[in-house]
Design brief:
alpha/beta, Rossmann fold, two-stranded antiparallel sheet, 40% helix, binds S-adenosylmethionine
């Protein structure tokens, strides 16, 4: 496995001031606890760790077990300590750094991990949704149609069904609806029909097979900057990982983990996710919305990090009941 990460985090300073409030760099006397629910390449988490004190705690989660497997040895060598295992993950602590907890689980488990650690409330939670560039680059996961690999698309390959199995067992209508709803693909019916016709003789098992089929049946291979296979791959990824259900669950339960004045910061890249986040922040009785409109990337960031173009950042604060 490649120990390096190529993922470039988006809206880093905006996330930091969103999590920390108005005076991000002021020293605090009480120990603080922050949670990064989507560790990915660790870009946001490292930035946050760099301003935390040894008495503070940073809890980091990722549903993809390979993320924690990659980051753990890197952090062990950087911090000069070995991680200690506990039932929900690993803990690293060195005299000069905050305690860093690595939990290879969905952000939906944040409440129970906090309980298991005896942490009553936290100062901030970050969710940076979607997938990372590292996952896109791992050809054996099927996230990218630019390289060939098994059509899996799961963040956690030990749970649920792969995208190949999804296309093998779902009805034509279920496949079409998924591609239409989660991918906003207007040729969804045509793609689903072609998949079902093909699987009669030869099931689709690789990312290249699916991409070739889409390129054959969807007119015009590239629309603007977007390849015509992008929307179908995105839709299947959202479906097999039940991503919207995880976001809905988190938006309902994570506000209860925040201390009064604690911040929930969410970056979404998909309109359906952003809609869930926007409504949940408005409607949750424990939250006050800080960002009336989502924060988006500056022209400078757009120039250097193309992933940032669809990022929308929303912030809410826990209020007293
Ligand atoms: C956009 S990346 C995060 C990048 C990260 N903020 C950074 O700075 O490198 C999204 C990450 O969220 C993870 N993820 C997706 N759904 C998740 C879930 N329900 N719980 C925890 N992690 C999840 C993915 O595996 C991926 O590593």
């Amino acid at each position: 496995m490649n120990p390096a990460t190529v993922h470039v985090p988006v809206l880093v300073e905006e996330v930091l001031s969103g999590l920390l409030g108005q005076a991000p760099h002021e020293p605090r006397s009480a120990p603080r606890v922050f949670v990064d629910g989507t560790l990915g390449g660790g870009g946001h988490a490292r930035r946050l760790a760099s301003i935390l004190q040894p008495a503070d705690t940073l809890l980091t989660f990722d549903r993809d077990p390979s993320v924690v497997d990659r980051l753990r040895p890197m952090l062990e060598s950087e911090l000069g300590v070995l991680a200690t295992e506990f039932p929900m993950g690993w803990s690293l602590h060195s005299p000069n750094h905050c305690r860093w907890i690595l939990a290879p689980h969905s952000y939906c488990t944040i409440p129970e991990v906090l309980t298991s650690l005896g942490i009553a409330a936290v100062d901030g939670i970050l969710l940076d949704l979607g997938l990372s560039s590292d996952q896109l680059n791992e050809s054996d996961r099927g996230f990218s149609f630019r390289t060939d690999g098994p059509l899996d698309l799961r963040f956690d390959p030990t749970t649920g069904i792969s995208a190949a199995d999804f296309l093998r067992i779902k009805s034509e209508k279920e496949i079409a609806d998924t591609i239409y709803q989660y991918g906003e693909e207007r040729f969804s019916r045509r793609i689903a029909r072609a998949i079902v016709e093909r699987r009669l003789s030869d099931p689709i098992v690789s990312s290249k097979q699916l991409a070739d089929l889409i390129h054959r049946v969807v007119p015009g291979r590239v629309h603007g900057r977007v390849d015509s296979a992008t929307r179908t791959f995105q839709a299947l990824r959202i479906a097999v990982n039940r991503e919207l259900e995880h976001v809905e669950h988190a938006m309902k339960h994570l506000p209860g983990c925040l201390a009064i004045g604690g911040r929930l910061v969410v970056i979404s890249f998909h309109s359906l996710e952003d809609r869930i986040v926007k409504h949940a922040m408005r409607e949750h009785s424990d939250l006050r919305v800080i960002t009336k409109k989502p924060i988006t990337a500056s022209a400078q960031e757009l120039d250097t990090n193309p992933r940032s173009r669809s990022a929308k950042l929303r912030i809410a604060e826990r209020v007293a009941p």
